[in-house]
Amino acid sequence: MSGGETDITRREVIVAGAAVASLAVLGPGQALAVPSSGDQNELPVALHVNGVRHDLNLEPRVTLLDTLRERLNLCGTKKGCDIGQCGACTVHLDGSRVLSCLTLAAQAAGKEITTIEGISDPGGGLHPMQQAFLDHDAMQCGYCTPGQIMSGIACVAEGHATTDDDVREYMSGNLCRCGAYRGIVAAIRDVAGSGG
Amino acid sequence: MERFTYAAPRTVKDAVLELASSGNVKVLAGGTTLIDLMKNGVEKPKRLIDVTGIKELNEFVIDGDELRFGALVKMSAVADHPEIKKRHPILSEALWRGASQQLRNMATLGGNVLQRTRCAYFRDPQYPCNKRQPGTGCAAIDGINRGHALLGTSEDCIAVYPGDWATALAAVDASFDTMSPRGARTISIHDLHVEPGRTPNVEHTLAADELIVRTRIPTRSAYRASTYQKIRDRASYAFALASAAVALDIQGDVVRDARIAIGGVATRPWRARDAEQSLIGRRLDERAARHAGELAYVNAQTTPQNAFRVPLGIAAVERALIVARERA
Fold first, then answer.
1. Architecture of domain A128-193 in this structure
2. What is the pTM of this model?
């Protein structure tokens, strides 16, 4: 979560794939076809991620998390425990925060999926929650941070960020093993206090 | 996760026909238990029937003399509903004190009641487990059983039924409408789960091709004077070491009706009827509340590791009764 000064992220440089580069120029509703691996058991799955439609062929056992990271190169969503305990993989499905590691990609078909890559404003500026995490030093290693931010945005939208205790209760599904909880609570309260 | 085939029917009728048409088939709703158990190799279904696209399972009715929640209604939708919080705190609290908000946004009320035990030996296929693989033995009875059951255990299994919601439902006499190829039926919460006995692999009385359609909760039993109290290793996002669901009807100072169920301590949702009877017609003071808690645990069978949860369980019942009384 470094500052949003450049359009090219570190991950895009690493992947350096044409598909990733083309993501940036596709508008909402435009389709991006990703080739199939040819498995007989695959299903056609249309995913709407951050306003972009992706037509995929996937085995039914593939999770939304693995699809985002391995097929769509959206690696901001993190794989922590992969068994629904840590919250690092939190994304929004139709505005509701869920764990992408326990969601089959097929179950997310037709829903609006928002990941950490999709929350900045159209001009590329940071989301207020991202800025608040910087302002309050709400991270150390940063691995849990995308999940914390996606969860924090939803926590404010749900009205569950009116007191520090409320934030602690409703953010309990996001673990931070560096122990940056004080900054995380402060960042979320800051955003809630400024009207979201 | 092993390979499986997948179907997403659009009607209850099609779903139950799918369930009836092949063996080793499972219903997929929120996935918070099933996908987890498929990842660690405990569940290996050959086919999943994803029911989340069935619109008729989204019913949400809270006026009238019973609450009706379709099987796909999410835990968070009921937990956060202002009318449920105000009029039926036992239901809201049992939900928001369970899991995390992400899981509550995924997990459905229909699936929640059938959630599986958290017994670490059940969840790890390298250990013997009579529930996972009948006849192999129980690793928990002589193993690490700090979190295992005190009530309803057998020589073959001491795994806890971990759910909070079903515990609250047991207190308020909920029932379920189900559908199978043989037609519709209604089953009481008290007849849904079974104790392990000699067949710990059998956890409930639904047929393999039977689907929960809705939960029905009589509003007369889900009183305003109610609560769900939960004691855990940490303050949030943990299963119960012991919990208590209490709903009271108090007129003046006198208890006319009391409903008590205890959770996190038994092999199935557990109604404490002797504890309830001890309160009827009496004034509910702290001594009476404590006595009721003790009655709820009279038959507890403990191990050296889990005996500490008897006093916790008694305290949960006592606290729940006092909290509920203050809401009368």
1. Orthogonal Bundle (1.10)
2. 0.92
